[in-house]
Specification:
The chain has 5 helices and 4 strands. With 233 residues, the chain is mainly α. The protein has a domain of 87 residues: Orthogonal Bundle (Arc Repressor Mutant, subunit A). Strand 3 and strand 4 form a beta hairpin. Helix 3 packs across helix 4. About 7% of the residues have low confidence.
Length: 233
Amino acid sequence: MTWEMWLLTLGSSVAMIGAAFYYYKKGAEAQAEYEKARETIEDVIISFNRELQGHEERLSLVSYKAEAAFSGVEELSGTLKTHGKQLEESQKSLKNIEKLKETVTSRLDEVSAKVEELGRKQGVLEEELAKIRKTVEQKPSVGPEIETVIPIRRETALAPLNKTELEVLKILAEEGEMSAPEIKTRINLSREHTARLMRKLYEAGYLERKTQRLPYIYKIKDEMLELLKKQSD
């Protein structure tokens, strides 16, 4: 091999090495540009995703507010319907109250008329009572605290009485007014028996009875007292 060929071969090798280095450098630069572009694109995509997510969140918030507003509108509509029904019921109640007022007014007029009529009747009754009082005042009375019964016939007054009953009359004639318990100690009978005996003599017309307090006080009638005196004489 001549030195010319050797130089040519060396030049070709150097040229090939230079070309390879050049292409390697360009490839490295292209790779770097690619990586840089890829990072930029990733940043753009991330930013876009964030913006998209923000828009989605805002849309969700708007949708939630819209649903809440729609729900509020429905609730307000229901409330308005309820108030409308209540207003109708109130109007009906007012009409009923007006009718009731008319009825009460009519009844009051009737009551006023009846009160006036009662007032007139009361005046008449007072006049009648005044007449009755005058009549009563003109008649003799036994006394406000003494109860009496219808008198019995004197000729047969003492005939139906037994020994104990006559004894009670004599005790009252001799010692004056007494209660049933006081009579009981004198005739030696039970309380119930003595009470029945005194009531019998009172109802038969032999005794008078004071009812101002309990126990009642019994007193022999004046005509019975006279009969006992005549009988003893």
